[in-house]
Design a protein that fits this description.
This protein is an all-alpha fold and about 325 residues long. Helices cover about 60% and strands about 0% of the residues. Strands 1-2 form a two-stranded antiparallel sheet. Helix 6 (about 105-120) runs antiparallel to helix 7.
Length: about 325
């Protein structure tokens, strides 16, 4: 019995990792991630902050800095090392967005960003690690099969029905679910909870290091209560984001029995979580200075949808059918 169960589980994993699907979700993930790299490096260049942030004090930076193995192997945080790293990372972000050089663009962007972010601990955020993870997934994925210059050169069209492995998309889904759920678990301050009156967002928006302007008007009657509601929604949304993964799993095969599976297939809980996420990140970007974090997290959202669903959405928006789908993988809307 134990061996049969083990063989069944192994067969399930083999089947899951063998699934193939059209590449729209991974292509959008690639484009969003490439733009995030451009925003990350481009903003530092545009605001003339490269030398200030990433050069050692000996060469004009504001403090003594270090760097990872790549920075040290190239000679340390000096201009002739840092500037080529920044520019090459930016160029890799552009080629990644356009869909040129495929995995090589993702690898160069990932190693460049990792090296630059390692130089100064004061000038990096959690979004750097998340973006590097995104780029590594793209190293493993065939993300230029469609919506890319590579596709245009190969087929004469911007879109293609070529099938790609679906497991990198599953990996991206796992990543974003872990990020959100762990973030909710790490919100340990009482101000995020009923005990603290759900006051966290109000106080965060009063901090000059975060807000884009004077936010004292949020203390007006009614507006403060809105910040409390937003705090509660954000906290609960993050804590329970793992339910998106469960939803996708249950929706994977709607023909299987079960009341919970039937309910999930009638009510797509995933759409509610995505809607809250879009509103949350857009609001944060509008009110707070958080760098490209909002864009990097939104890059994962296309992966929450099966390519067939993305095609259907395109048809609904434009009134034109998407390119004819190739042989579909099993599962309609789940992680496969």
């Amino acid at each position: 019995m134990g061996q049969a169960r083990a063989r069944g589980r192994w067969a399930w994993w083999v089947a899951l990792l063998s699934r193939r699907e059209t590449g729209e979700a991974l292509a959008l993930f690639r484009i969003f991630s490439g733009v995030a790299v451009i925003l990350n490096m481009g903003s530092a260049i545009g605001f003339d902050m490269v030398s200030f942030l990433w050069l050692d004090a000996e060469f004009g930076g504001y403090r003594d800095v270090g760097g990872n193995w790549l920075v040290q192997a190239l000679g340390g945080a000096r201009p002739e090392v840092v500037w080529p790293l920044v520019v090459s990372t930016l160029v890799a972000g552009v080629t990644l967005t356009l869909g040129v050089f495929g995995r090589v663009s993702a690898l160069v962007a990932a190693q460049g960003l990792l090296a630059v972010a390692s130089i100064n601990s004061h000038a990096k955020g959690s979004y750097d690690a998340l973006l590097v993870n995104s780029l590594w997934i793209l190293v493993l994925a065939d993300a230029t099969a469609t919506l890319s210059l590579a596709c245009r050169r190969r087929t004469g069209r911007w879109t293609s029905d070529a099938l790609v492995a679906s497991w990198p998309r599953i990996l991206a889904i796992t990543q974003i679910c872990v990020v959100y759920t762990s973030t909710g678990l790490h919100k340990l301050s009482m101000s995020w909870t009923p005990a603290g009156g759900f006051s966290a967002l109000y106080y965060i928006l009063q901090q000059p290091s975060w807000h884009r302007g004077d936010m004292t008007w949020l203390a007006w009657p009614g507006l403060y209560q809105l910040t409390q509601l937003a705090t509660a929604i954000t906290w609960v949304w993050e804590l329970t984001f793992w339910m998106v993964a469960v939803t996708l799993y249950l929706r994977d095969d709607p023909t299987r029995p079960g009341r919970l599976r039937a309910l999930v297939n009638r009510v797509d809980l995933r759409l509610a979580y995505v809607a809250v996420g879009v509103v949350l990140h857009s609001s944060v970007a509008a009110l707070m200075v958080v760098g490209p974090f909002w864009w990097i997290t939104l890059a994962y959202y296309p992966c929450l949808f099966h390519p067939q669903e993305l095609r259907a959405f395109f048809t609904w928006i434009t009134g034109r059918p998407a390119a004819r789908a190739g042989p579909a993988s099993s599962g309609s809307s789940a992680a496969g």
